[in-house]
Amino acid sequence: MPGDDARSAERGWVFGKIKEQGEWRSKCLNMIASENFASPWVEKAYISDFMHRYAEGTPFNRYYEGTRVIDELEDKANKLFARVLGSKKSDTRPISGAIANMATMRAFTEPGDTIVSLPVPAGAHSSHGRGGVAGLLGLQPKKLAFKNREFTIDVEESSRIIRECKPKLAIVGASLILFPLDISGLKEACEEVGAKLIYDSAHVFGLIFAGRFQSPFKEGADLLTTSTHKTFPGPQGGLIAGSVNEEDWAKVERGVFPRILSNHHLHRIPALLVAAYEMQEFGVAYADQIIKNARAFAQALHERGFKVCAEERGFTECHQVVVDVSEIGGGDWAAKALDRANIIMNKNLLPWDELNLERLTNPSGIRMGVQEMTRFGMKEREMVEVAEFYKRVLMDKEAPEKVKGDVENFRSQFQKIHFTWDLRDLEGIE
Ligand SMILES: Cc1ncc(COP(=O)(O)O)c(C=O)c1O
Questions:
Q1: Ligand 1 touching residue 316 (CB < 6 A)
Q2: Which of 7, 230, 382, 404 is deepest in the core (most CB within 10 A)?
Q3: Residue 236 CA, closest ligand 1 atom number
Q4: What's the gap in Å between 96 CA and the centre of ligand 1?
């Protein structure tokens, strides 16, 4: 047993680290495209008795007792997401986007089956490929065709590939994404060969929820998978929605439990519901501002001499901005230099990069997302200032440590969370 001094040192170290992280990131321009910052209301709903409980099964049909209250909450959340997304069903149990993909892929495949997905440099998530979930399930992933410079699916060639290799499913969605993906164009070929069409909306889910990106179910998706914490500012977690028949939906539910999950981290569910209610109220304004900010940021970078991708298409229609930095030092150098200036984003493969170790460790691009800084109140005007910081570090090669002070100063004016309920009302909530 540790003595009093050792105990208090260990405890102090852990809580000190938590404080260090919070203080540090509140001084940063947080621009990782897959992150967000949940509202204090969502945080409040997150820590509760539910974090200690289990509820195997589906609402009102559980293998455990003591689930009366989570049944009501989970059922409400499932129905709300299905209604907003225009699907027949939704399942909020997957604890992450990759788990949602795994459950959905497993539901409709057996080891050895062929599936199709986008190439990794074109933006496919690792879970769609041989190195991730698809490989783990013993699937044979074949690549769809992509028009690299346009950041869009080559529908004609991809349809030909689908007809030729007759996959069990097509999973379409991307971690590097600038524009809606033409899933409707793939529908005919998928139907012909009996492939399920799955849209992985992880990055753009908040924009889709707000009706500001694309409507996957109207466009022909059979299923949608997602994370709940990227442009959708919920607790970290996942979700599956589907417009398939009862028999196929039962396969999805069995894919989640018992095939993959036992505990589904119940405390996420009330927090997810709070995030959904806030998004119903503020989501349209939030999504519109995200898109305006991303475009303003892209334009400001372009005017400062950066090679911003997809100029011909207006740079972006979502939260992401992608820049080719191969001629000014490469993605690895750029991401590390910016980190030293408290600007947090990531290096990224670009669609024309080859998939080899050298490129993976030093890809041509950097990927930025404006969703978190938009939540903290930044608008188009501020995006120009943010672009100027990027220029100072990456183009003018100013010492990042010198820029850092100005970044911190600038960020200190944007500490209040927007697109959330009145925080004064939180005081009355137990
Ligand atoms: C397109 C896509 N799908 C799935 C995932 C996995 O989501 P999670 O991190 O919630 O498992 C990601 C993560 O970034 C993603 O970009």
A1: no
A2: 230
A3: 10
A4: 7
Residue 98 Cβ contacting ligand 1 at under 6 Å = yes
Ligand 1 binding pocket includes 200 (Cβ within 6 Å): yes
Instruction: Write out the two tokens for 200.
Output: 């992985």
Q: How far does residue 74's CA lie from ligand 1's centre (Å)?
A: 22
Q: What's the CA-to-centroid distance between 239 and ligand 1, angstroms?
A: 11
202 lines ligand 1 (CB under 6 A): yes
> Which residue of 34, 102, 264 sits with most ligand 1 atoms within 8 Å of its CB, as the best mutation to test the pocket?
34
pLDDT band at residue 1 using 50, 70 and 90 as cut-offs: low
Whether 309 has a pLDDT exceeding 90, the answer reads yes
Domains and CATH numbers, the chain: 42-274 (3.40.640.10), 282-411 (3.90.1150.10)
**Using one digit for the tens of pLDDT, what is the confidence trace for 3-52?**
888 888 999 999 999 999 999 999 999 999 999 999 999 999 999 999 99
Q: What mean pLDDT is reported for the chain?
A: 97
